[in-house]
Amino acid sequence: MVEIPQKIKELLIEKVPVAVLTGAGISAESGVPTFRGKDGFWKQHRAEELATVDAFMSDPELVWGWYQYRRGIVNSVEPNPGHFALALMEKAIEDFTLITQNVDNLHARAGSTDILELHGNIHRNKCIKCGAVYSKEVDVNQKEVPECECGGMIRPDVVWFGEMLPQQTLQSAFEAAERAELFFSIGTSAIVQPAASLPIAAKRHGACLVEINVESTMLTGYADEFLQGASGDILPIIIKECGFE
Ligand code: OAD
User: Fold this and answer.
1) CA nearest ligand 1 atom 7, residue
2) Ligand 1 pocket, 37 CB below 6 A?
3) Of 95, 99, 157, 243, which one's alpha carbon is 20 to 30 angstroms from that of 167?
């Protein structure tokens, strides 16, 4: 069992401002494939080849098909103990910010209420032409790309490579990172910008930086504490040892 350093528990029990950045790894134990792991390929394509405007414009059905496949997965899985532990942490700590790169909605399903979704949400769609947002879920079996009333193609409302992140959300995320005295980077390879800069910004502003990951990443050398293991194992231990259950 992973030993949780005393310093982390003390900061949590003192209820200092906390910010958390999650990536695909936190949902891996729910059965959602990560982007860069061995399961992170779909029909031999890498995420970077599919999650772009160019890919969508040149082969809309291929990109739409990838999102329909991923929607099918996220609809069929459940949040895991890592998601639930973060929902409990939010309840226990007044100044707590959950920032996620995930589009799978599993944090919300686990009970987290205030979530900064940096890369959008896979359940929403929007028109590429007029920008109309469609919040109603599309049947995952629908293979054709839907068309908006204005005639434009409808795409998933997620952030693709080369696109801007929602600016207000990003600003709130940086403010939370800079305010945090304790920052957790959980289940992310910490290479996709600008999300990867959040742990660095937190540390520069004095936070204790804790990384939870099954393997080391670009961030590990910079972290104050590296807790190696599955987030679904480690986070519930932290919650239990801090009495946040
Ligand atoms: P990655 O697939 O790059 O990284 C997942 C990380 O989770 C890896 O470092 C794994 O070691 C770790 N991991 C796997 N299982 C774990 C577990 N059970 N517990 C803890 N850690 C675990 O995914 P992200 O970092 O989220 O962006 O990728 C960032 C962005 O790149 C995504 O949001 C997406 C992608 O392309 C866009 O689509 C714009």
Assistant:
1) 25
2) yes
3) 95
- What tokens does 144 get? 């054709």
Pairing of strands 120-127, 133-134: antiparallel
Q: Could you write out the DSSP letters of every residue in 162-179? A: TSPPPHHHHHHHHHHHHH
Band of residue 165 on the pLDDT scale cut at 50, 70, 90? very high
Written as six digits, the tokens of 210 are 């804790």
Q: Which one from 45, 83, 107, 119 is the annotated catalytic residue?
A: 119
Give yes or no: residues 133 and 199 share one domain. Answer: no
**pLDDT tens-digit readout, 89-143:** 999 999 999 999 999 999 999 999 999 999 999 999 999 999 999 998 889 999 9
The answer, yes or no, to whether any atom of ligand 1 lies below 6 A from the CB of 199, is: no
CATH number at residue 62: 3.30.1600.10
The answer to whether 195 touches 88, Cβ cutoff 8 Å, is no
Number of domains, the chain: 2
**Maximum Cα–Cα distance across the chain:** 58
Atom of ligand 1 nearest to the CA of 40: 2
